[in-house]
Amino acid sequence: MSAAHPGLDELIDTVALLRAPGGCPWDADQTHESLVQYLVEESWELIDAIESGSREEMIEELGDVLYQVLFHADLAAHTDGERFDIDDVARHMTAKMVSRHPHVFGDREAETAADVVAFWDDLKADEKPHRTSVLDGIPRGMPALALAQKVLGKAEKVGVADATAQALPAAAPVDEDELGRVLLGLVASARSQGLDAERALRAAVRGLEDEVRAAEESRAGSRTD
Q1: What is the pLDDT of residues 94-133, one digit of tens each?
Q2: 164 close to 148: Cβ distance less than 8 angstroms
Q3: pLDDT tens-digit readout, 60-69
Q4: Terminal alpha carbon distance of the chain
Q5: Within 10 A of 213 (CB to CB), how many other CB atoms are there?
Q6: Nearest by Cα to 135 from 120, 113, 116, 157
């Protein structure tokens, strides 16, 4: 099953031309590290377009993120010690998606999205045996709120309940609009008291991570007794 993608091929050729000798001096000077800030910016602009933009804005921002991927791949293709290109990236991703979907490409059965989530962790554990904690692989650079949500999900998997979540008021937000106002109010209150909401939440998340790791160590110890 294959199809021609002339637009994509043209963009790949454009990236190569800009980075080749005689192309753009700025492009030629970039490294994976120097491009990180642009990847972050373009990713957030795409999120904005998804949440509140038009079809045209989504096309533009998806293109900007795609360009970053192609740029990194072309850079790697011409860097000693790396030497991989966009085809290597694509093939690796295809293999990963096939292995992650045995209910589509294999003989495992999954009728609902919940069924898929139920065995996803087992599949990822087989792919990355070096990971010893459910917390391994969580990007530390995530914004605090996204990080908190991610870690809470991981904590739930090992039976660790966050005390803060358990202490929610009876009139908890019933939808995302109300939740947004509550969160904004908390940030405003923190700001008025000279507190850093981002730093405070990160500190609380680190405390939860300590609880998760302690629970994992306790489980591991009980299995070896």
Answers
A1: 999 998 898 899 888 888 888 887 777 677 767 777 778 8
A2: no
A3: 999 999 999 9
A4: 53
A5: 16
A6: 157
